[in-house]
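Hi D.,

Good news: the full-assembly prediction came through. Inputs first.
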Amino acid sequence: MTTRSDHFEVILAGTGGQGLILSGILLAEAAILEGKNVVQTQSYGIASRGGLSLAEVIIDTEEIIFQQVQRPDCILALTEEATRKYEGWAAKGVPILYDSTLANARTAPNFTGYAFTQTASDLGNEMSVNILALGTVAAKTGVVRMETLEQMIRKRFKGTAVEMNLKVLAAGRDLTAR
Amino acid sequence: MQGNHAIAEGAIYAGARFYAGYPITPSSEIAEECSRKLPKLGGVYIQMEDEIASIAAVIGASLAGAKSFTATSGPGFSLMQENLGLAVMGEVPCVVVDVQRAGPSTGLATRPAQSDIMQIRWGRHGDQSVIALCPSSVKECFTLTVTAFNFAERYRVPVVLMPDEIVGHMRENVEVPAPGELEVVDRKRPAGPPADYKPFKADEDGVAPLAAYGGEYVFHVSSSMHGLDGYSNNDPANAAWRVKQLHEKIDRHRDEIVLTKRFGTDDADVLLVTLGATTRSGRAAAIEARRQGVKAGVLQLQTVWPFPDREVAELGRRAKMIVVPEMNYSGQIAGEVRKAVGPDVDLRQVNRYNGTIITPQDILAVMLGAK
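Then the structure:
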Protein backbone atom coordinates (compact mmCIF):
# COMPACT_ATOMS: atom_id res chain seq x y z
CA MET A 1 0.00 0.00 0.00
CA THR A 2 1.06 3.56 -0.67
CA THR A 3 3.04 5.15 2.10
CA ARG A 4 4.09 8.38 0.43
CA SER A 5 2.80 9.64 -2.85
CA ASP A 6 2.37 13.01 -4.51
CA HIS A 7 -1.34 12.48 -4.98
CA PHE A 8 -3.62 10.73 -2.54
CA GLU A 9 -7.39 10.25 -2.59
CA VAL A 10 -9.50 8.78 0.17
CA ILE A 11 -13.23 8.22 0.68
CA LEU A 12 -14.58 8.06 4.23
CA ALA A 13 -18.10 6.67 4.01
CA GLY A 14 -20.71 5.70 6.56
CA THR A 15 -23.97 6.95 7.92
CA GLY A 16 -25.04 10.42 9.04
CA GLY A 17 -24.04 11.05 12.65
CA GLN A 18 -20.89 8.93 12.71
CA GLY A 19 -18.76 12.03 12.33
CA LEU A 20 -16.92 11.10 9.16
CA ILE A 21 -16.98 14.61 7.74
CA LEU A 22 -15.10 15.72 10.84
CA SER A 23 -12.61 12.90 10.20
CA GLY A 24 -12.18 14.24 6.68
CA ILE A 25 -11.61 17.77 7.97
CA LEU A 26 -9.04 16.58 10.52
CA LEU A 27 -7.21 14.55 7.88
CA ALA A 28 -7.23 17.50 5.46
CA GLU A 29 -6.03 19.96 8.09
CA ALA A 30 -3.26 17.59 9.15
CA ALA A 31 -2.12 17.39 5.52
CA ILE A 32 -2.13 21.20 5.27
CA LEU A 33 0.04 21.31 8.38
CA GLU A 34 2.44 19.00 6.57
CA GLY A 35 2.63 21.47 3.70
CA LYS A 36 0.30 19.75 1.23
CA ASN A 37 -2.56 21.08 -0.85
CA VAL A 38 -5.92 19.58 0.03
CA VAL A 39 -9.51 19.56 -1.10
CA GLN A 40 -12.17 18.10 1.14
CA THR A 41 -15.74 17.63 -0.06
CA GLN A 42 -18.73 15.83 1.32
CA SER A 43 -22.06 14.38 0.44
CA TYR A 44 -24.93 13.77 2.80
CA GLY A 45 -28.69 13.73 2.92
CA ILE A 46 -31.14 16.00 4.69
CA ALA A 47 -31.30 13.93 7.89
CA SER A 48 -28.87 14.75 10.70
CA ARG A 49 -28.79 11.04 11.62
CA GLY A 50 -28.82 8.16 9.16
CA GLY A 51 -28.53 7.94 5.40
CA LEU A 52 -25.32 7.58 3.42
CA SER A 53 -22.84 10.25 4.44
CA LEU A 54 -19.34 10.59 3.14
CA ALA A 55 -16.29 12.78 3.06
CA GLU A 56 -13.71 12.83 0.29
CA VAL A 57 -10.19 14.10 0.80
CA ILE A 58 -7.59 14.72 -1.91
CA ILE A 59 -4.04 15.49 -0.89
CA ASP A 60 -1.39 16.61 -3.34
CA THR A 61 1.87 18.50 -3.58
CA GLU A 62 0.55 20.19 -6.75
CA GLU A 63 -2.62 22.20 -7.42
CA ILE A 64 -5.72 20.01 -7.15
CA ILE A 65 -7.91 20.75 -10.15
CA PHE A 66 -10.92 18.42 -10.02
CA GLN A 67 -12.23 18.37 -6.48
CA GLN A 68 -13.79 14.90 -6.37
CA VAL A 69 -12.13 11.53 -5.87
CA GLN A 70 -11.53 9.84 -9.22
CA ARG A 71 -9.42 6.89 -8.24
CA PRO A 72 -9.27 6.32 -4.47
CA ASP A 73 -6.08 5.11 -2.81
CA CYS A 74 -8.09 3.94 0.18
CA ILE A 75 -11.75 3.63 1.15
CA LEU A 76 -13.12 3.55 4.67
CA ALA A 77 -16.63 2.11 4.95
CA LEU A 78 -18.36 2.15 8.32
CA THR A 79 -21.69 0.60 7.36
CA GLU A 80 -22.97 -2.22 5.18
CA GLU A 81 -24.57 0.34 2.85
CA ALA A 82 -21.29 2.21 2.43
CA THR A 83 -19.31 -1.01 1.95
CA ARG A 84 -21.75 -2.16 -0.70
CA LYS A 85 -21.58 1.18 -2.51
CA TYR A 86 -17.81 1.02 -2.89
CA GLU A 87 -17.01 -2.70 -2.88
CA GLY A 88 -16.45 -2.73 -6.64
CA TRP A 89 -13.21 -0.82 -6.09
CA ALA A 90 -11.63 -3.76 -4.24
CA ALA A 91 -11.36 -5.78 -7.44
CA LYS A 92 -9.50 -2.83 -8.97
CA GLY A 93 -6.89 -3.05 -6.25
CA VAL A 94 -8.22 -0.39 -3.89
CA PRO A 95 -7.94 -1.31 -0.21
CA ILE A 96 -11.27 -1.10 1.60
CA LEU A 97 -11.24 -0.88 5.37
CA TYR A 98 -14.71 -1.78 6.59
CA ASP A 99 -16.41 -1.92 9.94
CA SER A 100 -16.90 -5.59 10.74
CA THR A 101 -19.26 -4.65 13.57
CA LEU A 102 -21.85 -3.15 11.21
CA ALA A 103 -21.02 -4.60 7.78
CA ASN A 104 -21.09 -8.22 6.63
CA ALA A 105 -17.72 -9.97 6.43
CA ARG A 106 -15.89 -9.82 3.09
CA THR A 107 -13.23 -12.34 2.20
CA ALA A 108 -12.20 -11.12 -1.25
CA PRO A 109 -8.75 -9.54 -1.69
CA ASN A 110 -8.25 -5.93 -0.58
CA PHE A 111 -10.98 -6.05 2.05
CA THR A 112 -9.86 -5.63 5.64
CA GLY A 113 -12.46 -5.79 8.38
CA TYR A 114 -11.94 -4.00 11.68
CA ALA A 115 -14.42 -3.99 14.54
CA PHE A 116 -14.43 -0.18 14.59
CA THR A 117 -17.77 0.38 16.29
CA GLN A 118 -17.23 -2.44 18.80
CA THR A 119 -13.74 -1.16 19.67
CA ALA A 120 -14.98 2.41 20.10
CA SER A 121 -17.76 1.13 22.32
CA ASP A 122 -15.30 -0.96 24.39
CA LEU A 123 -13.19 2.16 24.85
CA GLY A 124 -16.20 3.87 26.35
CA ASN A 125 -17.63 5.96 23.54
CA GLU A 126 -19.19 4.56 20.40
CA MET A 127 -19.43 8.14 19.09
CA SER A 128 -15.65 8.28 18.77
CA VAL A 129 -15.68 5.70 15.97
CA ASN A 130 -14.76 8.46 13.49
CA ILE A 131 -11.50 9.26 15.28
CA LEU A 132 -10.73 5.59 15.81
CA ALA A 133 -11.14 4.83 12.12
CA LEU A 134 -9.13 7.90 11.20
CA GLY A 135 -6.25 6.51 13.25
CA THR A 136 -6.51 3.25 11.33
CA VAL A 137 -6.63 4.97 7.92
CA ALA A 138 -3.62 7.14 8.77
CA ALA A 139 -1.61 4.22 10.12
CA LYS A 140 -2.50 1.98 7.20
CA THR A 141 -1.76 4.52 4.46
CA GLY A 142 0.88 6.72 6.08
CA VAL A 143 -0.62 9.69 4.25
CA VAL A 144 -0.18 11.91 7.29
CA ARG A 145 1.92 11.43 10.39
CA MET A 146 0.18 10.30 13.56
CA GLU A 147 1.77 13.21 15.46
CA THR A 148 0.17 15.70 13.08
CA LEU A 149 -3.24 14.18 13.68
CA GLU A 150 -2.61 14.37 17.43
CA GLN A 151 -1.81 18.04 16.97
CA MET A 152 -5.11 18.56 15.12
CA ILE A 153 -7.04 16.77 17.88
CA ARG A 154 -5.49 19.04 20.51
CA LYS A 155 -6.52 22.02 18.41
CA ARG A 156 -10.03 20.87 17.62
CA PHE A 157 -11.22 19.46 20.96
CA LYS A 158 -11.33 20.89 24.47
CA GLY A 159 -11.05 19.49 28.00
CA THR A 160 -11.42 15.76 28.59
CA ALA A 161 -12.35 15.21 24.94
CA VAL A 162 -8.70 15.77 23.99
CA GLU A 163 -7.35 12.85 26.02
CA MET A 164 -10.27 10.62 25.08
CA ASN A 165 -9.78 11.26 21.37
CA LEU A 166 -6.00 10.86 21.57
CA LYS A 167 -6.55 7.50 23.25
CA VAL A 168 -9.04 6.46 20.60
CA LEU A 169 -6.77 7.63 17.76
CA ALA A 170 -3.94 5.49 19.17
CA ALA A 171 -6.30 2.54 19.48
CA GLY A 172 -7.22 2.99 15.81
CA ARG A 173 -3.56 2.97 14.89
CA ASP A 174 -2.99 -0.16 16.98
CA LEU A 175 -5.76 -2.02 15.14
CA THR A 176 -3.43 -2.19 12.14
CA ALA A 177 -0.72 -3.87 14.23
CA ARG A 178 -2.74 -7.04 14.67
CA MET B 1 -11.05 26.80 5.23
CA GLN B 2 -14.54 26.10 3.94
CA GLY B 3 -15.97 28.04 0.99
CA ASN B 4 -18.82 29.43 3.07
CA HIS B 5 -16.40 30.53 5.79
CA ALA B 6 -14.25 32.19 3.15
CA ILE B 7 -17.29 34.14 2.00
CA ALA B 8 -17.91 35.39 5.55
CA GLU B 9 -14.22 36.23 5.96
CA GLY B 10 -14.12 37.96 2.59
CA ALA B 11 -17.16 40.05 3.52
CA ILE B 12 -15.53 41.11 6.77
CA TYR B 13 -12.31 41.93 4.89
CA ALA B 14 -14.35 44.08 2.51
CA GLY B 15 -15.73 46.00 5.48
CA ALA B 16 -19.14 44.35 5.88
CA ARG B 17 -20.43 44.91 9.40
CA PHE B 18 -24.11 44.01 9.07
CA TYR B 19 -25.59 40.60 8.36
CA ALA B 20 -29.27 39.75 8.52
CA GLY B 21 -30.39 36.35 7.38
CA TYR B 22 -32.42 33.24 7.84
CA PRO B 23 -30.22 30.13 7.83
CA ILE B 24 -30.77 27.62 5.06
CA THR B 25 -28.73 24.70 3.77
CA PRO B 26 -26.24 24.94 2.08
CA SER B 27 -25.51 28.53 3.12
CA SER B 28 -25.88 28.29 6.92
CA GLU B 29 -22.14 28.32 7.69
CA ILE B 30 -22.00 31.91 6.42
CA ALA B 31 -24.58 32.91 9.03
CA GLU B 32 -22.79 30.90 11.71
CA GLU B 33 -19.46 32.56 10.99
CA CYS B 34 -21.02 36.02 10.93
CA SER B 35 -22.81 35.38 14.23
CA ARG B 36 -19.43 34.57 15.79
CA LYS B 37 -17.34 37.27 14.18
CA LEU B 38 -19.42 40.39 13.49
CA PRO B 39 -20.38 41.27 17.10
CA LYS B 40 -16.69 41.16 18.08
CA LEU B 41 -15.94 43.70 15.34
CA GLY B 42 -18.63 46.10 16.49
CA GLY B 43 -20.89 44.80 13.74
CA VAL B 44 -24.38 43.39 13.82
CA TYR B 45 -25.67 39.87 13.22
CA ILE B 46 -29.43 39.41 13.23
CA GLN B 47 -31.32 36.22 12.57
CA MET B 48 -34.55 37.44 11.04
CA GLU B 49 -37.93 35.72 10.90
CA ASP B 50 -37.59 34.95 7.20
CA GLU B 51 -35.79 35.91 4.03
CA ILE B 52 -38.18 38.74 3.16
CA ALA B 53 -37.32 40.47 6.41
CA SER B 54 -33.63 39.61 5.99
CA ILE B 55 -33.17 41.46 2.73
CA ALA B 56 -35.31 44.33 4.05
CA ALA B 57 -32.99 44.68 7.05
CA VAL B 58 -29.94 44.53 4.78
CA ILE B 59 -31.33 47.35 2.62
CA GLY B 60 -32.12 49.46 5.69
CA ALA B 61 -28.68 48.91 7.20
CA SER B 62 -26.99 49.79 3.93
CA LEU B 63 -28.96 53.03 3.67
CA ALA B 64 -27.84 53.76 7.23
CA GLY B 65 -24.26 53.50 6.00
CA ALA B 66 -23.17 49.94 6.80
CA LYS B 67 -21.82 47.53 4.24
CA SER B 68 -24.49 44.86 4.49
CA PHE B 69 -25.19 41.39 3.22
CA THR B 70 -27.19 38.22 3.55
CA ALA B 71 -26.81 34.61 2.45
CA THR B 72 -29.42 32.12 1.39
CA SER B 73 -30.22 29.38 -1.10
CA GLY B 74 -32.86 28.95 -3.80
CA PRO B 75 -36.03 28.90 -1.67
CA GLY B 76 -34.90 31.92 0.32
CA PHE B 77 -33.58 33.69 -2.74
CA SER B 78 -37.04 33.44 -4.29
CA LEU B 79 -38.50 35.21 -1.26
CA MET B 80 -35.94 38.01 -1.56
CA GLN B 81 -36.78 39.00 -5.14
CA GLU B 82 -39.32 41.71 -4.36
CA ASN B 83 -37.07 43.63 -2.02
CA LEU B 84 -34.08 43.00 -4.25
CA GLY B 85 -36.07 44.95 -6.85
CA LEU B 86 -36.34 47.76 -4.30
CA ALA B 87 -32.56 47.67 -3.85
CA VAL B 88 -32.11 47.96 -7.62
CA MET B 89 -34.59 50.82 -7.89
CA GLY B 90 -33.26 52.59 -4.80
CA GLU B 91 -29.66 51.95 -5.90
CA VAL B 92 -28.81 50.42 -2.53
CA PRO B 93 -25.40 48.73 -2.35
CA CYS B 94 -25.71 45.23 -0.91
CA VAL B 95 -24.50 41.68 -1.45
CA VAL B 96 -26.73 38.61 -1.55
CA VAL B 97 -25.08 35.20 -1.50
CA ASP B 98 -27.13 32.46 -3.16
CA VAL B 99 -25.44 29.13 -2.46
CA GLN B 100 -27.16 27.19 -5.20
CA ARG B 101 -28.80 23.87 -4.41
CA ALA B 102 -30.90 21.58 -6.55
CA GLY B 103 -34.53 22.59 -7.09
CA PRO B 104 -37.21 23.21 -8.14
CA SER B 105 -38.76 24.53 -4.93
CA THR B 106 -37.11 23.06 -1.83
CA GLY B 107 -35.70 20.33 -4.09
CA LEU B 108 -32.61 18.55 -2.83
CA ALA B 109 -31.47 20.64 0.12
CA THR B 110 -27.95 19.24 0.41
CA ARG B 111 -27.13 18.77 -3.27
CA PRO B 112 -25.52 21.15 -5.73
CA ALA B 113 -26.98 22.90 -8.76
CA GLN B 114 -26.29 25.81 -11.06
CA SER B 115 -29.90 26.43 -11.90
CA ASP B 116 -30.58 29.88 -10.45
CA ILE B 117 -28.60 31.62 -13.19
CA MET B 118 -31.63 33.11 -14.92
CA GLN B 119 -33.43 33.82 -11.67
CA ILE B 120 -30.44 35.86 -10.54
CA ARG B 121 -30.62 37.89 -13.74
CA TRP B 122 -34.37 38.16 -14.21
CA GLY B 123 -35.98 37.24 -10.86
CA ARG B 124 -37.38 40.72 -10.32
CA HIS B 125 -40.21 42.19 -12.35
CA GLY B 126 -39.57 45.29 -14.38
CA ASP B 127 -36.59 46.08 -16.51
CA GLN B 128 -33.51 46.04 -14.33
CA SER B 129 -30.02 44.70 -14.01
CA VAL B 130 -27.76 43.31 -11.28
CA ILE B 131 -24.20 42.02 -11.13
CA ALA B 132 -23.47 38.35 -10.37
CA LEU B 133 -20.18 36.63 -9.58
CA CYS B 134 -19.50 32.89 -9.32
CA PRO B 135 -16.52 31.35 -7.44
CA SER B 136 -14.98 27.98 -8.28
CA SER B 137 -12.67 27.56 -5.31
CA VAL B 138 -12.40 28.50 -1.66
CA LYS B 139 -9.88 31.17 -2.57
CA GLU B 140 -12.30 32.70 -5.06
CA CYS B 141 -15.04 32.57 -2.41
CA PHE B 142 -12.89 35.03 -0.49
CA THR B 143 -11.63 37.22 -3.32
CA LEU B 144 -14.88 37.41 -5.30
CA THR B 145 -16.79 38.31 -2.13
CA VAL B 146 -14.46 41.29 -1.73
CA THR B 147 -15.05 42.11 -5.40
CA ALA B 148 -18.81 41.76 -4.92
CA PHE B 149 -18.78 44.38 -2.17
CA ASN B 150 -16.53 46.63 -4.25
CA PHE B 151 -18.91 46.49 -7.21
CA ALA B 152 -21.95 47.02 -4.95
CA GLU B 153 -20.36 50.07 -3.38
CA ARG B 154 -18.93 51.52 -6.57
CA TYR B 155 -22.06 51.15 -8.69
CA ARG B 156 -24.78 51.34 -6.00
CA VAL B 157 -26.25 48.04 -7.10
CA PRO B 158 -27.10 44.70 -5.49
CA VAL B 159 -24.47 42.09 -6.30
CA VAL B 160 -25.28 38.38 -6.16
CA LEU B 161 -22.51 35.94 -5.30
CA MET B 162 -23.58 32.55 -6.64
CA PRO B 163 -21.45 29.63 -5.48
CA ASP B 164 -22.88 26.17 -5.95
CA GLU B 165 -23.18 23.83 -2.98
CA ILE B 166 -19.94 22.08 -3.90
CA VAL B 167 -17.90 25.25 -3.66
CA GLY B 168 -19.77 26.53 -0.60
CA HIS B 169 -19.12 23.34 1.35
CA MET B 170 -15.69 22.51 -0.04
CA ARG B 171 -12.62 22.92 2.12
CA GLU B 172 -9.23 23.87 0.73
CA ASN B 173 -6.03 25.36 2.01
CA VAL B 174 -6.00 29.08 1.30
CA GLU B 175 -3.80 31.96 2.25
CA VAL B 176 -5.98 34.74 3.53
CA PRO B 177 -4.94 38.02 1.90
CA ALA B 178 -3.27 40.46 4.26
CA PRO B 179 -5.08 43.74 5.02
CA GLY B 180 -4.38 46.12 2.17
CA GLU B 181 -3.50 43.34 -0.26
CA LEU B 182 -6.89 43.47 -1.99
CA GLU B 183 -8.54 46.73 -2.96
CA VAL B 184 -11.54 47.68 -0.82
CA VAL B 185 -13.96 50.23 -2.26
CA ASP B 186 -16.28 52.43 -0.24
CA ARG B 187 -19.33 54.17 -1.67
CA LYS B 188 -19.07 57.81 -2.62
CA ARG B 189 -20.42 60.17 0.02
CA PRO B 190 -21.99 63.55 -0.74
CA ALA B 191 -19.82 66.57 -0.04
CA GLY B 192 -21.99 69.60 -0.82
CA PRO B 193 -24.52 71.38 1.38
CA PRO B 194 -27.15 68.95 2.75
CA ALA B 195 -29.98 71.10 1.42
CA ASP B 196 -28.71 70.59 -2.14
CA TYR B 197 -28.26 66.82 -1.87
CA LYS B 198 -30.04 64.77 -4.49
CA PRO B 199 -29.63 61.03 -3.86
CA PHE B 200 -30.13 60.05 -7.52
CA LYS B 201 -28.14 62.79 -9.21
CA ALA B 202 -25.36 60.80 -10.85
CA ASP B 203 -21.82 62.02 -11.25
CA GLU B 204 -20.01 61.60 -14.53
CA ASP B 205 -19.41 57.92 -13.81
CA GLY B 206 -23.16 57.35 -13.79
CA VAL B 207 -23.34 56.77 -10.04
CA ALA B 208 -24.71 59.19 -7.45
CA PRO B 209 -23.06 59.70 -4.05
CA LEU B 210 -25.02 58.04 -1.25
CA ALA B 211 -25.54 59.67 2.14
CA ALA B 212 -26.31 57.66 5.27
CA TYR B 213 -29.61 57.79 7.11
CA GLY B 214 -29.26 59.36 10.50
CA GLY B 215 -26.86 62.05 9.33
CA GLU B 216 -27.39 65.64 8.25
CA TYR B 217 -28.33 64.61 4.71
CA VAL B 218 -32.04 63.90 4.80
CA PHE B 219 -33.20 61.94 1.78
CA HIS B 220 -35.98 59.81 0.43
CA VAL B 221 -35.74 56.36 -1.18
CA SER B 222 -38.74 54.86 -2.89
CA SER B 223 -39.46 51.76 -4.89
CA SER B 224 -41.77 53.81 -7.10
CA MET B 225 -40.51 55.82 -10.01
CA HIS B 226 -38.72 58.84 -8.66
CA GLY B 227 -36.70 61.85 -9.73
CA LEU B 228 -33.26 63.09 -8.74
CA ASP B 229 -34.50 63.99 -5.27
CA GLY B 230 -35.99 60.54 -4.65
CA TYR B 231 -39.58 61.75 -4.60
CA SER B 232 -42.30 60.30 -6.77
CA ASN B 233 -42.21 61.37 -10.40
CA ASN B 234 -44.46 59.97 -13.12
CA ASP B 235 -43.11 62.01 -16.00
CA PRO B 236 -42.33 59.70 -18.98
CA ALA B 237 -39.08 61.52 -19.67
CA ASN B 238 -37.99 60.94 -16.07
CA ALA B 239 -39.02 57.27 -16.18
CA ALA B 240 -37.05 56.72 -19.38
CA TRP B 241 -33.98 58.37 -17.88
CA ARG B 242 -34.23 56.30 -14.69
CA VAL B 243 -34.53 52.91 -16.41
CA LYS B 244 -31.74 53.79 -18.79
CA GLN B 245 -29.49 55.00 -16.02
CA LEU B 246 -29.98 51.81 -13.96
CA HIS B 247 -28.74 49.81 -16.94
CA GLU B 248 -26.14 52.23 -18.19
CA LYS B 249 -24.22 52.55 -14.96
CA ILE B 250 -23.46 48.83 -15.30
CA ASP B 251 -23.13 48.71 -19.10
CA ARG B 252 -20.60 51.52 -19.35
CA HIS B 253 -18.39 49.86 -16.71
CA ARG B 254 -18.88 46.46 -18.30
CA ASP B 255 -15.19 45.86 -18.98
CA GLU B 256 -14.28 46.47 -15.33
CA ILE B 257 -17.12 44.25 -14.12
CA VAL B 258 -16.71 41.30 -16.48
CA LEU B 259 -14.10 38.97 -14.98
CA THR B 260 -13.04 35.77 -16.71
CA LYS B 261 -10.16 33.36 -16.43
CA ARG B 262 -8.58 31.50 -19.31
CA PHE B 263 -6.89 28.14 -19.13
CA GLY B 264 -5.15 27.03 -22.32
CA THR B 265 -7.46 28.97 -24.63
CA ASP B 266 -4.78 30.47 -26.92
CA ASP B 267 -4.74 27.57 -29.37
CA ALA B 268 -7.97 25.87 -28.33
CA ASP B 269 -9.98 24.05 -30.96
CA VAL B 270 -12.44 23.05 -28.26
CA LEU B 271 -13.58 25.79 -25.91
CA LEU B 272 -15.20 24.88 -22.60
CA VAL B 273 -17.27 27.67 -21.09
CA THR B 274 -17.62 27.04 -17.38
CA LEU B 275 -18.66 28.52 -14.06
CA GLY B 276 -18.35 27.47 -10.42
CA ALA B 277 -17.47 23.88 -9.63
CA THR B 278 -17.82 22.76 -13.25
CA THR B 279 -14.77 24.89 -14.01
CA ARG B 280 -12.74 22.29 -12.18
CA SER B 281 -14.37 19.41 -14.07
CA GLY B 282 -13.74 21.34 -17.28
CA ARG B 283 -10.09 22.03 -16.53
CA ALA B 284 -9.48 18.37 -15.69
CA ALA B 285 -11.27 17.35 -18.92
CA ALA B 286 -9.22 19.82 -20.98
CA ILE B 287 -5.95 18.47 -19.59
CA GLU B 288 -7.00 14.91 -20.42
CA ALA B 289 -8.18 15.95 -23.89
CA ARG B 290 -4.79 17.50 -24.65
CA ARG B 291 -3.16 14.27 -23.50
CA GLN B 292 -5.27 12.60 -26.19
CA GLY B 293 -4.25 15.16 -28.80
CA VAL B 294 -7.28 17.46 -28.72
CA LYS B 295 -6.49 21.10 -28.06
CA ALA B 296 -9.01 22.10 -25.43
CA GLY B 297 -9.16 25.23 -23.29
CA VAL B 298 -11.40 26.63 -20.59
CA LEU B 299 -13.02 30.04 -20.30
CA GLN B 300 -14.21 30.43 -16.72
CA LEU B 301 -16.96 32.97 -16.14
CA GLN B 302 -16.17 34.57 -12.80
CA THR B 303 -18.68 37.26 -13.70
CA VAL B 304 -21.90 35.71 -14.94
CA TRP B 305 -23.98 38.91 -15.14
CA PRO B 306 -23.43 41.06 -17.09
CA PHE B 307 -22.73 38.08 -19.32
CA PRO B 308 -19.18 37.94 -20.78
CA ASP B 309 -20.55 37.84 -24.32
CA ARG B 310 -17.56 39.49 -25.99
CA GLU B 311 -15.07 37.16 -24.34
CA VAL B 312 -17.18 34.13 -25.28
CA ALA B 313 -17.53 35.40 -28.86
CA GLU B 314 -13.84 36.15 -29.25
CA LEU B 315 -12.72 32.68 -28.19
CA GLY B 316 -15.81 30.80 -29.34
CA ARG B 317 -15.65 31.95 -32.95
CA ARG B 318 -12.03 30.77 -33.15
CA ALA B 319 -12.92 27.32 -31.82
CA LYS B 320 -14.24 24.38 -33.82
CA MET B 321 -16.47 23.35 -30.96
CA ILE B 322 -17.81 24.87 -27.76
CA VAL B 323 -18.84 22.70 -24.83
CA VAL B 324 -20.87 24.12 -21.95
CA PRO B 325 -21.12 21.96 -18.83
CA GLU B 326 -23.63 23.21 -16.28
CA MET B 327 -25.65 21.71 -13.46
CA ASN B 328 -29.11 22.45 -14.83
CA TYR B 329 -31.49 20.95 -17.38
CA SER B 330 -32.27 23.95 -19.50
CA GLY B 331 -28.79 25.09 -20.50
CA GLN B 332 -29.01 28.54 -18.96
CA ILE B 333 -25.39 29.41 -19.77
CA ALA B 334 -25.43 27.57 -23.09
CA GLY B 335 -28.30 29.80 -24.25
CA GLU B 336 -26.26 32.92 -23.54
CA VAL B 337 -23.23 31.38 -25.25
CA ARG B 338 -25.36 30.68 -28.32
CA LYS B 339 -26.51 34.29 -28.33
CA ALA B 340 -22.88 35.42 -28.19
CA VAL B 341 -21.46 33.17 -30.94
CA GLY B 342 -24.39 32.89 -33.33
CA PRO B 343 -26.15 29.87 -34.86
CA ASP B 344 -23.29 28.34 -36.85
CA VAL B 345 -20.93 27.23 -34.10
CA ASP B 346 -20.90 23.57 -32.99
CA LEU B 347 -22.19 24.07 -29.45
CA ARG B 348 -22.61 21.06 -27.19
CA GLN B 349 -24.11 20.89 -23.75
CA VAL B 350 -23.30 18.74 -20.74
CA ASN B 351 -26.18 19.02 -18.29
CA ARG B 352 -26.69 17.42 -14.89
CA TYR B 353 -29.80 18.13 -12.90
CA ASN B 354 -29.96 15.25 -10.41
CA GLY B 355 -27.93 16.84 -7.64
CA THR B 356 -24.71 15.09 -8.62
CA ILE B 357 -21.54 16.52 -10.02
CA ILE B 358 -20.45 16.79 -13.64
CA THR B 359 -17.28 14.73 -13.94
CA PRO B 360 -14.39 15.28 -16.36
CA GLN B 361 -15.45 12.00 -18.01
CA ASP B 362 -18.94 13.39 -18.68
CA ILE B 363 -17.38 16.33 -20.49
CA LEU B 364 -14.83 14.22 -22.36
CA ALA B 365 -17.58 11.95 -23.64
CA VAL B 366 -19.38 14.91 -25.20
CA MET B 367 -16.19 16.61 -26.36
CA LEU B 368 -14.64 13.59 -27.99
CA GLY B 369 -17.82 11.82 -29.01
CA ALA B 370 -19.35 12.05 -32.46
CA LYS B 371 -21.68 14.93 -33.15
